[in-house]
Write a structure and sequence with these properties.
β3 and β4 form a beta hairpin. The protein folds into two domains: about 5-95, Nuclear Transport Factor 2, Chain: A (Roll); about 95-284, Glucose Permease (Domain IIA) (Distorted Sandwich). The chain is about 10% helix and about 25% strand. It is of the alpha+beta class. It is built from five helices and 15 strands. It has helices at about 5-15, 15-20, 25-30, 35-45, 100; strands at about 50-55, 65-70, 75-80, 85-95, 115-120, 140-145, 170, 175-180, 200-205, 210-220, 230, 235-240, 250-255, 265, 280-284. The longest helix has 11 residues, at about 35-45. The strands form three sheets. Strands 5, 6, 8, 9, 10, 11, 13, 14 and 15 form a nine-stranded antiparallel β-sheet that branches.
Amino acid sequence: MMKPKDLSDVLLSGNFEKVYKQISEYFQNEVSLKQFQELCEEFNKDITKFILQSELPYDNGAKQYVWTDDSGTKGIIAVFDVDYVIQALQLIPLAVHHETDEIFTKTNLHLPFRDEWFVFWGGTNKLVNYHYEFENQRYAYDFVIMNENRSYKSDPTLNESYFAFGKEYLAPADGVVVSMENNVEDNRPVGTFNEEQPLGNYVILDHGNEEFSYLVHFKHQSIVVKQGDKVKQGDLLGLVGNSGNSSEPHIHFHVADSPNPMNSKSIRINFNGKRDLIQGNFVK
């Protein structure tokens, strides 16, 4: 049986039948072997290699894998269950933004938390970072705390069940608070969204150099700074929550060239010299 990490090489070798035999019965009922072969042959054109970008564990033991080709213009996303059966497989064309992908913040920024967190969304394509399609959040990160492939314990509908909820949310660099909100209720139950106030409770910091940190989804009334305050890197800003357009308690962090969330352009973050945080990484 093909191991998950071998999928891209097997596809590139043209052994499509081997992959097809390992795909779920449901998929095979929807797509014939001939159709699958034709799709893969077209997809493989002009590709010399694939690069594994991320591994994302699911709480049921399954794992998602993402590859891109060396040009970044084609991607594979596959989900293998515990028996190595492929439960989902997509071959996807990808948009690339090379003109901004290689421009990093002049400010050296730190992670806005203590201890070890997990990069749930982050990277320079939409397969590992859904924000990438939106210019104002293109290089955003979402961080959660994972324990045994889960971000929560007990009842998943309760904010208090999530390991991230109530954790300290820190300033990533020296700056001035230019905007903030502290009065948005946390989403209850988890899984509901506040699309009218997408940022929820937030702090925007001006670091100079036309670089503004957006720190989003704070816990209701937990923010301890106010507009005009000067903060130092590592200062407490508030507590992690689940306010705004948020799927669960987590940290959303991005940097942009303006404090206007709708008309700004995201800038790739220079994490104090580390430039390659990506979905599936544990960081601290």
